[in-house]
Amino acid sequence: MNRTIKAFIVDDSAVVRQVLAQILAADPAIEISGSAPDPLFALQKMQKDWPDVIVLDVEMPRMDGITFLRKLMQERPTPVVICSTLTEKGADTTLQAMSAGAVDVITKPKVGLKDFLESGSQHMVQVIKAAARARLAPVTAKVPASRPAQDVSPTKAPAIPLSRTTDQVVALGTSTGGTHALEAVLTQLPADCPGIVVVQHMPEKFTAAFAERLNHICRCEVREAVDGDRVLPGLVLIAPGGLHMQLRRSGAQYRVGVTDGPRVNRHKPSVDVLFRSVASIAGRNALGIIMTGMGDDGANGLLAMRHAGAHTIAQDKETSVVFGMPREAIERGAAAEILPLPAMAEAIIQRGR
Fold first, then answer.
1. CA neighbours within 13 Å on the CB side: how many for 246?
2. Distance between CA atoms of residues 135 and 274, nearest Å
3. Is 297 a catalytic residue?
4. pTM recorded for the entire structure
5. How many whole angstroms separate alpha carbon 302 and alpha carbon 308?
6. Predicted local distance difference test score (pLDDT) of residue 161
7. Which domains, and CATH codes, for the chain?
8. Contacts of 134 (CB under 8 A, 6+ apart)
9. Helix, coil or strand: residue 203
């Protein structure tokens, strides 16, 4: 019989604490071990009964969530899910918290809070359950990487049929725990790495801040994708939150299409949407990688890539924060290779060669 997950809520809003407690406690697998309006009160209460998962607000009195999170990860690492306001400022602050060791993020609007939380109750429960199973790795600060002063974009080549091009494209999909995994991989890549397209399950407004943060610490260029962007060596394009991203072609060039549409596998952007397009457009010129995440998004798309001749990789269980998406891909025969996270960057570099 599975053990009940003990969750503790830290938020300065009494309404948020009440609504979250009601939603989570409605699931028999989750028990609310307590709540507090700020981290200092939380620490006092949690000492008596330490939780399995902490739901944490970012902006609070006396001690902010990021300071508390860093203290927590140094002294007693515990899975933390950030509950943050869906704004540009909130997105930047929340990403700092993710970098400090948070497992996932739940977004909340400034108005209509109760209706919003209740409509997303199933997702919240899934996030808490996934966080309880998360494997926490030490968090280390990244030093911004130096870039060459010259433009690293390749010289424009004459147009040739795409079927004859040797240009490589790397498609990478991830979810829960993916912010850390992507950082670990992309910071190890050289400035002339193959063109990379990424889907990281993340709410709108968050992906731009995430891409900007990675751009400061990577040798390659990282940015949020815009419809029509060309896929180039040394460039990483991250799908915008709330939109799907697909690979397209224009003559001998790879480009991305960024469009709206229904959720696929409960997600927008969806890894499956990206992977299926890469299978169709790039075929054997592609490398597909699926990493840590909850659920099965990307498993069928990775299988389509493998059938199209692409090399496919899944992250192993030992280094995945949540071994959901990689496990599904492996079980469906979509992964030609299973690698630990530290080996992913070298796999991408070898593909470029």
1. 14
2. 27
3. yes
4. 0.83
5. 10
6. 39
7. 5-132 (3.40.50.2300), 162-352 (3.40.50.180)
8. 79, 103, 176, 177, 321, 322
9. coil
- Catalytic (active site) residue 151: no
| pLDDT tens readout for residues 252-297 | 899 999 999 999 999 999 999 999 999 999 999 999 999 999 999 9
Kindly state the helix (H) or strand (E) to which residue 56 belongs, with its residue range: strand 53-56
Q: How far apart are CA 5 and CA 92, in angstroms?
A: 29
Which ranges of the chain does DSSP label H, i.e. alpha helix? 14-25, 39-46, 65-75, 88-99, 113-119, 121-132, 178-186, 206-217, 271-281, 299-307, 325-331, 344-352
- Catalytic residue, candidates 38, 296, 297, 316: 297
Q: Which residues partner with 197 through β-bridges? A: 171, 237
- Give me the count of residues in the chain: 353
Question: Is residue 270 annotated as part of the catalytic site, yes or no?
Answer: no
Give strand pairing partners of 76: none
Query: 127-140, pLDDT tens digit by residue?
Result: 999 999 998 865 44
- What are the distances in angstroms from CA 153 to CA 61, 157, 193, 194, 230? 47, 11, 11, 11, 11
The single residue of 175, 270, 277, 320 carrying the catalytic annotation is 175
* Residue matched to tokens 């939780």: 51
Give the β-pairing of 104-108 and 5-10: unpaired
